[in-house]
Design brief:
Layout: H1 2-8, H2 10-19, E1 21-23, H3 24-29, H4 34-42, E2 46-49, E3 52-55, H5 57-77, H6 87-96, E4 98-107, E5 111-117, H7 122-129, H8 132-140, E6 146-149, E7 152-163, E8 166-176, H9 182-196, H10 203-213
Antiparallel strand pairs: 1-3, 2-3, 4-5, 4-8, 6-7, 7-8
């Protein structure tokens, strides 16, 4: 654990950058333990010159650049529309083995598209960025209740709404783990579909229905 803290804690990196060079005693006064010093040295962030530790600015700069790349990934995760689900409700789904719940809306003009997901997952982003996947799921949902796309396993159910006299079929898809409770997953999805069916599609309504169905 000390190894991880030493590498990930920005306060530690800030301290050694400001000091530049320091002794073990000075490090201790800054709250940097021997374990952390050894880890920083092992990862090349510190150089040990006799009794003095010297900050390796070049190595820290490269580390910061790598962390900077994570910002791009984080920004990408924010693009997926998600619902507000309490940790207690999410934990209940987790016990069943449900990683995520996706609502694929059949748009009257544009066809199947991701409306929202319970949370960000890699598959949620694929649903949003690759329009062929919602179309494929829409076709499959007519004859199958389970599907595997790549390494993602889904349990799917459909519900309908009316639009100017036209019946539109939408999809609820539970993204599940390899060891999930099939019966409980089916019950939750069926309850959600019953509560959503033939009502207006709105994110706040869907969020409320999902919360009450768990």
């Amino acid at each position: 654990m000390a190894h991880r803290i030493a590498i990930l804690d920005p306060e530690t990196l800030k301290k050694i950058l400001i000091m530049g060079a320091f002794s073990k005693e000075e490090a201790k006064r800054m709250g940097i333990t021997q374990d952390i010093l050894e880890t920083l040295h092992r990862y090349g962030l510190l150089k040990q010159l006799g009794k003095i530790y010297v900050t390796n600015r070049e190595a820290i700069e490269k580390l910061i650049e790598e962390y900077g790349k994570l910002r791009t990934i984080i920004e990408g995760t924010k693009r997926v529309p998600t619902l507000e689900i309490s940790e207690k409700k999410a934990a209940k789904l987790g016990e069943i083995g449900i990683k995520n719940i996706h609502i694929i809306y059949f748009h009257p003009q544009h066809g199947p598209m991701l409306l929202c997901s319970m949370r960000y997952t890699k598959f949620a982003r694929l649903l949003m960025e690759n329009p062929e996947i919602p179309v494929t799921l829409s076709t499959i949902s007519r004859r199958a209740e389970e599907v595997k796309i790549g390494d993602t396993r889904l349990v799917i159910r459909t519900f309908t709404t009316k639009y100017h006299g036209r019946e539109l079929t939408h999809i609820l898809a539970a993204e599940v783990t390899t060891e999930f409770d099939m019966e409980r997953t089916k019950r939750i999805l069926e309850k959600m579909c019953q509560n959503i069916a033939r009502r207006d599609i709105a994110l706040d309504l869907i969020g409320e229905i999902i919360r009450k169905s768990i």
